[in-house]
């Protein structure tokens, strides 16, 4: 019998096998509730992750204007929430993609910077918006510590194989009282519980995701690293993937999604998690 690996977030040795996806075993931590890819498979998964993002970089650039137009008002809504934390005006978007959020921040008077793994995307943002974008992983970059008012990353944390060093680096880059704003997937959602095996077949599982979080994980890790949780919420229900081959069931589940969404918010069972946390003074 193979021993269970220690948790990649809290180092707890009490983990249990959760499931296997395309040959990659995932384990869940009994302490912090992180669902993570076993270390034995990590390098292979990350190599595949890099191939995916190197390949899609140019395709995304080709549709960038159409994509960003639909996101602009959503970005502005987030930036309005972050306005109380503006001091120097510096904001960093990690995994900035085609630069939509950076562009919106620029329009609202922020001094934006980005971090991006795909060279095609970084080049696009620099050339079209004159916004500095650093290519590489955050851990490998030499950025000024304590210099950012806000650090933002959307649907990124699930790609990070070693989340604790990553979040520690984020903490070091923020000024005291600065804010971290993130969104990621919730493996304790109604969607995950109801869809079961079908949840693993959703598109985001094929995009190099190696860690999945829950509200319990967030409540555990951020105080550990010196952050104060300002806001923790979830939203969104997707029950319909379980009925992909059943037309009637699929349609009924789509209706159920809307009915269940308010309960998902109340009980923090939505399939997306949003965290706003402040660096303690």
Task: Summarize this entry quickly.
By secondary structure, this protein is α/β, with parallel strands linked by helices.
Strand order of the largest sheet: 6-5-4-7-8-11-10
- The share of residues in helices is 25-40%
Distance between the termini: 47 Å
Please trace the helix and strand order, writing H or E for each element: EEEHHHEHEHEEHEHHEHEHE
Task: Write structural notes for this entry.
This protein has 281 residues and is of the alpha/beta class. 39% of the residues lie in helices and 24% in strands. The chain is built from ten helices and eleven strands. The protein has a seven-stranded mixed sheet, with helices on both faces. A four-stranded antiparallel sheet has the order 1-2-3-9, with no helix packed on it. β1 (15-21) and β2 form a beta hairpin. α1 (42-62) runs parallel beside α5 (119-129) and α3 crosses α4. The protein is globular. The model has no long low-confidence stretch (mean pLDDT 87).
Topology:
Blueprint: E1 15-21, E2 24-29, E3 35-37, H1 42-62, H2 64-69, H3 72-82, E4 90-94, H4 100-107, E5 111-116, H5 119-129, E6 133-135, E7 148-154, H6 163-173, E8 174-185, H7 190-195, H8 197-200, E9 211-212, H9 215-225, E10 227-235, H10 247-266, E11 272-279
Parallel strand pairs: 4-5, 4-7, 5-6, 7-8
Antiparallel strand pairs: 1-2, 2-3, 3-9, 8-11, 10-11
Helix pairs in contact: 1-5, 3-4
């Amino acid at each position: 019998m193979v021993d269970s690996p220690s948790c990649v977030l809290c180092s707890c040795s009490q983990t249990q096998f959760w499931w296997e996806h395309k040959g990659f075993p995932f384990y869940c931590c009994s302490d912090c509730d992180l669902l993570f890819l076993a270390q034995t498979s990590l390098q292979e998964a990350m190599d595949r992750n890099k191939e995916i993002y190197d390949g899609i970089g140019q395709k995304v650039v080709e549709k960038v204007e159409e994509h960003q137009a639909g996101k602009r008002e959503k970005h502005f809504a987030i930036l309005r929430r972050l306005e109380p934390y503006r001091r120097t005006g510096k904001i960093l978007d990690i995994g900035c993609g085609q630069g939509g959020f950076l562009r919106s921040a620029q329009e609202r008077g922020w001094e934006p910077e980005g971090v991006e793994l795909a060279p095609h995307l970084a080049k696009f943002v620099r050339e079209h918006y004159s916004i500095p974008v650093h290519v590489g992983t955050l851990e490998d970059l030499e950025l000024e510590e304590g210099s950012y008012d806000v650090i933002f990353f959307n649907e990124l944390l699930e790609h990070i194989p070693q989340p604790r060093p990553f979040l520690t680096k984020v903490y070091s880059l923020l000024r005291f009282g600065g804010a971290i704003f993130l969104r990621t997937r919730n493996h304790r959602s109604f969607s995950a519980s109801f869809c079961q095996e079908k949840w693993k077949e959703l598109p985001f599982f094929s995009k190099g995701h190696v860690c999945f979080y829950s509200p319990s994980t967030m409540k555990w890790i951020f105080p550990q690293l010196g952050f104060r949780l300002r806001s923790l919420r979830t939203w969104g229900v997707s029950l319909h993937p379980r009925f992909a081959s059943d037309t009637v069931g699929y349609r009924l589940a789509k209706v159920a999604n809307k009915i269940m969404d308010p309960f998902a918010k109340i009980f923090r069972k939505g399939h997306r998690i949003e965290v706003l946390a402040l660096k303690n003074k």
